């Protein structure tokens, strides 16, 4: 068989493999989630595997089972603690009288409308009040608790299947850290087996550090936002909901903190509509802005260099360019997946294309 025939067969095989992954996308998603969970739980498994009680060592199956139980315990406690707070906050939002709220903000709204009209190109009047009423009404409707839980009940069957599948797969990934690698190796030619094994080991080590670091970053950012907002005067339940959302949005590089801060400001205004805007709401928004800015400074100086730079061994400017490119191609999802995907590409390039100077320079730290 000539070279063109080989390339044709390889291309055809890749296309068929892609179609297979697309057709079984749910199963692929379960496997990928299980891989991430196994990365997070791997330090616990390794710790337990190293324990010795006299001459007895903890079996790998027991270590994996205990770690899996701990992972689910943390998630159950998370939902059990925070879901009631979120539901209570959503109920409060759904009870807001939007028209009455707009009447209480009449004066600052009129000033903003006059300012926008003054500096607009055509000097046409701008009805800010109508825009706010429409947007806040839709936001409040989204917060309707009955709709939220109704949609959750409708997906319980699929959720149970997903949870069981993910748990089953995660257990075996925790029990045998090389199981996923061995499955991938089966798909490549024998002559490339050693290189692929080395690539998978490097990817596993880098991504495990990344996901573990990301997990702790979400917790720490959410905790700091919650404490800060509680100190500046927000009720603890409201501060927890905002902190939880801000921590999760922080996973999205660069624009995630802005989304979290805007959400917090909206909740801050919505829960204080019965007080004077200039003497109560405006100072509160200023204090909230200080909290979000302070948390971001700490995150940018302390957390992100450790996670986004050291964990994947890449320059911060390099990471920034990759994230911006991924965002322009695939939006927010692209920004979230940019760093893990770039890590995978760099490791593969180092193993198989290291004879190029450009690749050597980009991968010299891994």
TrEMBL record:
Q: Which Pfam families match?
A: AI-2E_transport (PF01594)
The record's listing under InterPro entries reads: AI-2E-like
Transmembrane stretches, start-end: 7-24, 30-49, 61-83, 148-174, 214-245, 251-273, 285-307, 319-345
Instruction: List the keywords (alphabetical).
Output: Cell membrane, Membrane, Transmembrane, Transmembrane helix, Transport
Where does it sit, as one GO cellular component term? plasma membrane
Q: Where in the cell is it found?
A: Cell membrane
The family classification in the record reads: Belongs to the autoinducer-2 exporter (AI-2E) (TC 2.A.86) family.
Q: Specify the superkingdom.
A: Bacteria
Name the record gives this protein: AI-2E family transporter
Topology in the membrane?
Multi-pass membrane protein
Q: Which organism is it from?
A: Labilibaculum antarcticum
